Amino acid sequence: MQSHSSQGSAHASGKEVAGSEFLAFTLGSEEYGIDILKVQEIRGYEAVTRIANAPEFIKGVINLRGIIIPVIDMRIKFKLGTPVYDQFTVVIILNISGRVMGMVVDSVSDVTTLMPDQVKAAPEMGTAFNSDYLVGLGTIDERMLILVDIDKLMSSGEMGLIENLAT
């Protein structure tokens, strides 16, 4: 009953009815989506400068127009096999609460608009992402996007290490 009332209020206030845009990217065989508003730009993968004693998932830092930003390899972070860097590998430059950081992914496919009724709650299952970081599952025809709350993920405790590296 409560879900109907909250859904009704969302429609009444005009929020989310227009749908939300997500940038779709792949890690291994899974397709993920993050809020397009968090994405600053998408760049091809380039060599990074390693930082001594940084966790393995932090590839290093790059100089982005005079700003030193940390780069996280999501495949290493979520133990999705050995990363391969090829012509499809990209770095998604994110702006999370005023902090700029890069996220290495296998490839980026498109920007997708999902209506509220296309987003389902994520079941408890063994995905690479802790369910705390999942928004839900977006479905478009036969396609399914695992929607990630990139704000929560990048501001989680272990990612706090990144702040120390960038300063």
TrEMBL record:
Cellular compartments per GO CC: cytosol
Record localization: Cytoplasm
Main location (coarse class): cytoplasm
Stored InterPro entries: CheW, CheW-like_dom_sf, CheW-lke_dom
Gene Ontology terms describing biological process: chemotaxis; signal transduction
Pfam families according to UniProt: CheW
Record keywords, A-Z: Cytoplasm
Domain CheW-like stretches: 19-159
Keyword flag Amino-acid biosynthesis: no
Superkingdom of the source species: Bacteria
Keyword presence, Transport: no
PANTHER family for the chain: CHEMOTAXIS PROTEIN CHEW (PTHR22617:SF45), CHEMOTAXIS SENSOR HISTIDINE KINASE-RELATED (PTHR22617)
Protein known as: Chemotaxis protein CheW
Originating species: Massilia glaciei
